[in-house]
Write a structure and sequence with these properties.
2 domains; 6 strands; 6 helices; Lon_prtase_N_sf; globular; alpha+beta; Archaeosine Trna-guanine Transglycosylase, Chain: A, domain 4; Peptidase S16; single chain; PUA-like_sf; 222 residues; Lon_prtase_N
Length: 222
């Protein structure tokens, strides 16, 4: 099942959304995130989303906040996605794909009896997210590719260089950030970068620090 809708600005987005706390999961505007849903509360969340606007907020729990694992504190910024692919398995799981719409900031978490968490959010601080390929010309593409090559060489990885060379800067930077193996704090820094140029700079810096850490010299970014 494929579903499409256009969100042209913050005013088009819902003010209250369900949120899916998932450490290390980074969704960015126009990015694609596959999810395997099996917990009953999140199956219910998907059912409810499909009956309404199909929007779900991906957000990371703040594991260093000291709150209980059952109800962890959330980072304040996440990214909303729309369910654009949906399939149900024979054992009751949902296989879905979210397409990133825009980042949001939590204004208030609402009391709920649904089992999953819902928040009042604002998209207003992230107006630029609604404009595809905004800020691409300012990205240090050569620096991004160098950091990627160094990381690939250090970890003996294989990548589709032809596809990478053809990707526009926004798709390249956001895809590399989403697929990167870094921790929640690093992922959050990429998410909260004010623009594409800064996100690319964070990606380069975190990658370089990880390479240094891998050599046994310095700790990773905290």
């Amino acid at each position: 099942m494929s579903m499409n809708v256009a969100y042209k600005g913050p005013a088009d987005c819902p003010g209250v959304i369900p949120v899916f706390p998932l450490p290390g999961a980074l969704l960015l505007p126009r990015g694609q995130m596959p999810l395997n849903i099996f917990e009953p509360r999140y199956l219910a969340m998907i059912d409810d989303a499909l009956r309404t606007d199909r929007v779900i907020g991906m957000i990371q729990p703040d594991s260093e906040s000291g709150e209980t694992p059952l109800s962890p504190k959330l980072f304040r910024v996440g990214c909303a996605g729309r369910v654009t692919q949906f399939a149900e398995t024979g054992d009751g799981r949902y296989l879905i794909s979210l397409t990133g719409i825009a980042r949001f900031r939590i204004e208030e978490e609402l009391s709920t009896t649904t089992g999953y968490r819902r928040c009042k959010v604002t998209f207003a601080p992230f107006e630029s997210d609604f404009h595809a390929r905004a800020g691409e010309d300012a990205v240090d593409r050569a620096g991004v590719l160098k950091a990627l090559r160094d990381f690939v060489d250090a970890n003996d990885l294989k990548v589709d260089w032809a596809g990478i060379e053809e990707a526009p800067n926004e798709a390249l930077v956001n895809a590399l950030c989403m697929m990167s193996p870094f921790g929640p704090r690093e992922k959050q820094a990429m998410l909260e970068a004010p623009d594409l140029k800064t996100r690319a700079e964070v990606l380069i810096a975190v990658t370089e620090m990880e390479l240094v850490r891998g050599s046994g010299s310095e700790p990773t970014l905290q």
